[in-house]
Amino acid sequence: MRLTRYTDYAMRVLLYLGQKPGRLCAIAEIARAYAISQNHLMKVVNDLVNAGYLESVRGRNGGIRLARPAAEINVGALIRHTEDDFDLVGCGSCIIAPACGLTCVLDEALRAFMAVLDQYSLADLLARKGDFSHLLNFTAPAVTSGRQTDA
Q1: Regarding beta strands 147-149 and 54-57, do their DSSP bridges make them parallel or antiparallel, or are they unpaired?
Q2: What is the pTM assigned to this prediction?
Q3: pLDDT score, position 130
Q4: d(Cα 147, Cα 139) in Å, to the nearest integer?
Q5: Residue 106 lies in domain
Q6: Which of 3, 27, 104, 147 sits in a 20 to 30 Å window from 93, CA-based?
Q7: What's the domain count of the chain?
């Protein structure tokens, strides 16, 4: 199974914010840290706010943060929320699907995949490999006179 970029970005946001519990972070900051599209990330963040995974604070000193403790964010539930289609193969359009043994095996494999993800919280992922924030730090290019230069 291959997860979508949408799910990838959702997990990246949650992992980033999980490294900085309680701190408000800007979407632009997260996009720069991962070198990903800020526009696409804004859509993902909006969805995560509406789903109750993130809290958004408006204004000059605003930003986003986890809406609940990392230990209460289940990875399997998040994946189910962000993924639209869990079909491993397009069996629905196959003429032999009702009698095919592959369909049942693939369904079983998907249930096993999700059962593993259901065993983990965001806190578990953060603790599993340790602090990765140093991997996200970089010096953004300084802008002077309308021209970018290396800082």
Answers
A1: unpaired
A2: 0.81
A3: 66
A4: 16
A5: 5-140
A6: 3
A7: 1
